[in-house]
Queue: 2 jobs
Job 1
Amino acid sequence: MSDHSSIDSSGHEAPGNDSHAQDIAGHINTYMWIFGSLLVGTVLTVLMYYVDFSSMAMTVAVALFIASIKAFLVAAYFMHLMSEKKLVYSVLLLAAFFFTGLMGLTLWGSFDLPTNSIHKTSYVP
Amino acid sequence: MQTATQPHSHSHDHAGHDHAHHEPGFFSKYIFSTDHKIIGIQYGVSALIFLLFGFLLMLAMRYQLAYPGQPVPVVGSLLQKFLGDDLAKGGVMQADLYNSFGAMHGTIMVFLAIVPILFGAFGNYVTPLQIGAPDMAFPRLNMASFHAYFLGGVIMFASFFTPGGSARSGWTSYSPLASVTDLVNRFDGQTYWLIGMVFLITSSLLGSVNFIATIIQLRCRGMSWMRMPFFVWTQFITGFLLLLAFPPLEAAGIMQLMDNLFGSSFFLPAGLVVNGTALGVSGGGSPLLWQHLFWFLGHPEVYVLILPAIGIVAEVIANNTRKPLWGYKSMVYATMSVGFLSFIVWAHHMYLTGMGTKIATFFQTTTMMISIPSVIILTALFISLWGGSIRFNSASLFALSFLPMFGIGGLTGLPLGFNASDVYLHDSYYVIGHFHYVVAPGTMFAVFAGIYYWFPKISGRLMNETLGKIHWAGSLFFMNCVFAPMFIQGFKGMSRRMYDGGTTYFLGVDPTALSLNKMITMSAIALGLFQLPFIINFFYSIFAGKKVHSDNPWNATTMEWSTPTPPPHGNFTSEPVAYRGPYEYSVPGSKTDFTPQTQKP
Amino acid sequence: MEIPYTYKARPDTGLYNAKVGIWLFLASEIMLFGALFSAYILLRVSAPVGFWPETALAWPRGLLNIPIGTFNTAVLITSSVTVVMAWASLQMNKFNHFRIYMVITVLCAFAFLGIKSFEYNDKFSHYVVQTKSGKPVTGHIEVNGKHPRFWNFSDQWTLARLTAENVKEISVAVDPERDEHGHVKSHSNHAHENRTIATDDIQFLGSYTPATHPFFAVYFLITALHGLHVLGGALVLAYFAFPGAKMWKDNPQQFINRIEVGGLFWHFVDLVWIFLFPVVYLL
Ligand code: HEM
Ligand SMILES: [Cu+2]
């Protein structure tokens, strides 16, 4: 939470005072846990590769699910997105929205093809 | 109300700083400068040169359209000498040269002239001044951004002299056309074009990060969001457009580069046959993917071309009507909506690529939605004129004629946005007419207005009004003579991008449509001649223009006029504070008809 | 006037300039890599039937070296932890720890790049041979008793070149056999069996390079761009660890900020890899 305390108070708090150091020590614990979880997640992803999910959709979903959790851990803790300023969230939200739009609409566009063409046969790419 | 939340904490001592005292040398002052004002001027000068160059390319093309098969006057022999017989035999423009000039005209105008003028030059010079900042947030990044732009420009220019000539697949560079122009020499003009684009995109990305950060972080005390001049708002939104829309084109550019250099098939379909021989590529790529990625930038880009222009016009109009802008807040929100929506309308450029009805309807709907805020902005500007005592100087004449010209440009966009009518109009001269009305008499007029308006701040001298008015009258008249007939040609079925004005490909086009070509070309030449008063005026005024007697010759309210003329390094002599909104003109009960933002209540 | 908030936070946003800058930059990076991932997905799902595998089961699945990829993932994750530890050490005023962590980070970065170039090298000299009679065969090839060298692009072999230079046959050190899931068959011995294939029997020959299949084009493009980010980040972090560390004496707060900003970039590079690894190696 107080990652930014030294920054918020405009640098008045010298880095390295005691209560601050304790805070950070607590964080280090968290970082180690996350390090562990990330490694476990990686191993899990690879193991999933050897499991037969019968459908491609399922395989993709599982792989992306694990990757998203790992990504969440990195973003939330290492990048401190758990407790960031509103401005940062808004910028990321914009990017996320436009990225979704780009991917979603492009994919939609490549599947919504004209039917009932005057040639009476449907269009095969 | 927001004043209380504003920072006032940069009070640490600067006594030790002496870098303002020693004179920097030529290189550090003009080439490696980190001062936003110098960088703005660098951008402005380079971009104006590119603007002239792009215009000359177009004149050569226009000549070809009006007088097919005849040598280009004046420069014909030079073209032959420098570009060779393949491109300009006997001084006559050949088809390849026409395509090459066409592609480069579009590229240069959009990426090397207009955007750098609006964003690089005016944005750099004026934005920090208007928000009361000493400089941009990241001055060295700003310099890097200019250098990347300049390098990109040099690469683009150099591409004319590569064997085979410059890129010639249009400014849109559609694949697979762009990947098959020269199958032997893979390092052809197209490759130069792509590398140049990567530099230009990088420049824009660095610039936009810098602009947004500056506007968020460096607003002076009291400069709350709703006290920012409208121009700053347009720069802010433009920054976001560039920041988020350009990266996909950068990705696409690199992919096309790989297609050209390493033989990959990102955008090449299987079984591609060129000139009767099968191309030995793996295939499996998608030509439409290029179009999606291109237009994902392309549409926001057209708003990059127009929003800062509207910002300039708003400043000039408020100042010369001596009235506050009507509906400032709605204009701000409308600008935000335009910016936001411009990311989800791109495929209206692709109605004819074989898209299904559902997605076409989606893009048609968003396109119609985006025209609503555009109309709001324009209407607010029109209403701002109502009841004002308008000063008709060169700046305000250009700004005033921007309004109807942009109106025509915008309204002619609507039939293009409906997919039923676009099926007929797509890729015709109607489209050319549409977007040129927006960028030429639109954006360009705003650029001229901006130059006449801010010239005294930059140089300490006024531009000549008589020459300015001649420039304005001639430009307005001949701009319309050039672009209005294009609508007619388009309706009559004349296609864009065709060599010889369609005579060689004659497809039942009404001959009267072709006959308009001569008139358009003549008008374009006249339009060029009417830029001479401007060029003369510009250089004359730098050295011998009438000196301004105050720092605020237009009696304006915004903060750039509270600085010394020209502003020194660091801009303000004491910490500026904004006490009021940006357009307090003719406030009842006040002694003067303007109350500067910095004036204490 | 000096530029304000170069290291102190602006009260109303709570951020210092560089932090605003880096997040804006990362937003644009999201769009950059987002577009690349979108392109990958689009190419894969809209390709002609049979060109890309419809299921996870066939070629090109399993073309990349999974153990090495996994190891590299771990390397990058480690560097992400050490960079955040470096930042935390500064917060606790332990400059020496900071430097150690930073050095580890940079070493990890170069380890990652080294391993990646090893993989690249292997791909450039790895071929897929589609015979007229049977299933595609993959492996390192030998032509006229010589291995083609990856760094020499003109040394790449294609069917056209074989015919042009009148080569009658090539020898392939065939990769271990895979089952229909793309996994190496457990009973196949891992030694490479040498097989000789006549030029007449070859329908297609191509190395694992962008020209052979869009999969490789995508793989090389995204990983190379990611690699450039790793390289750039590593250089900046190395600068902070040594010459740039002078700032710790004059302006500790600004130095901590720099490490934070550099770290943010580094974590982003890690994030990209977290998605890249499953998407190109495993799917
Ligand atoms: C509400 C306003 C607008 C609407 C509805 C609109 C709609 C369209 C549509 C549908 C097209 C594609 C036509 C086709 O290729 O068949 C188009 C092309 C174009 N528009 Fe607009 N537009 C608007 C405003 C603008 C503005 C403000 C600009 C620039 C400042 C602009 C610049 C362009 C350009 C450059 C093209 C041509 C791109 C090319 O194919 O080379 N438009 N417009
Ligand atoms: Cu558009």
Job 2
Amino acid sequence: MVEYSIILPTYNERDNLPLIIWLIVGELQKAGIGDWEVVVVVVVDDSSPDGTADVCRQLQRIYGDRHIRLHERPGKLGLGTAYRSGLEVAKGAFILLMDADLSHHPKFIPQFIAIQRTTQADIVTGTRYKGRGGGVYGWDMRRILTSRVANYLAQVMLSPGVSDLTGSFRLYRRAVFEEVISRVVSRGYVFQMELITRATKMGYTVAECPITFVDRIYGSSKLGAGEVMQYLRGLMLLFWTL
Amino acid sequence: MALPRGKVFVALLSVATVVWLCGLFVLPDGHARFLWRVSPLYVVMLFGTYSLACIGWGLLTFSECPEAAKELEQQVKEACDDLAKKGMRLNLAHS
Ligand SMILES: Nc1nc2c(ncn2[C@@H]2O[C@H](COP(=O)(O)OP(=O)(O)OP(=O)(O)O)[C@@H](O)[C@H]2O)c(=O)[nH]1
Ligand SMILES: [Mg+2]
């Protein structure tokens, strides 16, 4: 039985995908998580022009297609729907979301699982901003300031009781994820923020796990300018409706 | 589910505005009335100070993790070697 499904959305991650899969396999084996029998990685690729899907097929030959599922979509349909499509393929009782760009290190997956087991929380969310052992690498002063202000605004306007709202490294009980994501309307950075805030307002319990976040080394950022305005608009909408 | 924060905020703001306007009507000219008239300004300043303090605290306690980047860099090398053994060549020239 599949216990944990890792949904890995990819868009032009041909360099990162083999590395992240290698790290996931290694870390799960190190932690002795069911000889990684109980884990399935679902790669949701939006027909990346760089051939990420071919790289994924190569990885399936190496690691076996029982553990790595490739879900291909006809074009760049966005992250929010990538998680939703991934969920249809993923069979796990728990759903883990992470980025494929090596910003999220798989060594934290066993920690998430351990925290979930001891706290019985509905959601375990990675936090870069609280607790020992967490942090960020590779942001300049402007990026740090932006994130601090954005986080402060969200804390004041939503008080979600979670320290890292825009992070996308999280473990969910499947039913909780299905229920909450079906109500989420936001996109971009606000998507993760709405997901976690909605979940807390619906009474689901959230535990936090300090994580390190290393800004991407390979490949390029997909989320570009105009982001700040989108964030503020999204925040106002949640302020008014959530 | 609780009321959205924004709606609570607007409701409270309206009540406060009404109270403030009433005060302006009933208070006689003088020092007290002047203080009452500028009191919203104080509230705004107080909130601004609080906000700056929070953001400042966030900046001060912001932690960096160069070790994590080092560890990752090392592991990327290991991964490349190991994957090459498994028959997969990576070409990470551009960084
Ligand atoms: N399937 C799919 N995956 C996506 C899409 N956009 C982004 N991704 C993937 O989602 C993850 C997070 O996206 P990133 O581009 O890293 O977003 P970010 O971390 O906010 O920005 P960076 O600063 O570039 O790291 C990565 O694994 C991307 O490959 C999309 O439209 N479709
Ligand atoms: Mg990223």
